[in-house]
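User: Predict the structure for this protein chain, please.
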Amino acid sequence: MAGRIHRGDRPLRDAGLTLAGLSAHVLLSSPVVGTLSGILILMFFQEGAGVMAGTNFWLAFAVIFITQEFLHYWLHRFSNEWRWFWKLHRTHHTAENLNIGVLYRNNVFWVLLLPQSWFGPLAIYLGLGEPYVAAVLVTYTVNALTHTTFRWDLWLREKMPWSEPFWRVIERIITLPDTHHAHHAFGKGAHPNGNYAITLFIFDTLFDTAKIPNRRQTRFGLPIGKRLHWAEELFWPLVKKPLSPPSKKSIS
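Assistant: Here is the predicted structure, written as structure tokens:
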């Protein structure tokens, strides 16, 4: 029931896009976001260094985590609903099989929009570095678990049928592979225009963008994915390329 997803037929291209996106986190996000955040902090919080250091860890963690998740939900939703943002985000969706590497498969400029990147310098400056790091680690862990090839959620539900009431509750609160795979899929069991939450699926539930298929998805990527030029995938809007002609295989 869990199954494994058919691997894409362009491994070098997939690896290149993932490596480029990962490099952008280090070479672009850190210096650009860090510099701009520093300027904004000095403009608006000159006397705020360490001012919140005594805040209860769990309270600070909850506020940072929920706020970041809420902002990421709307960023992700806008990136699927607004054409300009979609072109920045679609590189993440051209992957034809899901794995942890897809986390980093992004247009290089996408990393500049992530709320987690902007929260970091401010949280550290205010003395909330530890709860911020904890919030980011939780987000990353769930994000990794929902992009894995192996459908561990379906496997657990099959092996422990007595736990089904638990799953029926948790799948409406926390993002699981079932709902996030549906977001990346097309065809049966797909829901690309919804399931936007990175961790707190309750935002999808509340804002009526949730679809819980409870099944394995078999087709991933975009129908035009193979026709996109790799340079546009990575560097749009600086690089714009026409779609390549459809192959005979895609026409059939």
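The chain has one domain: 22-244.
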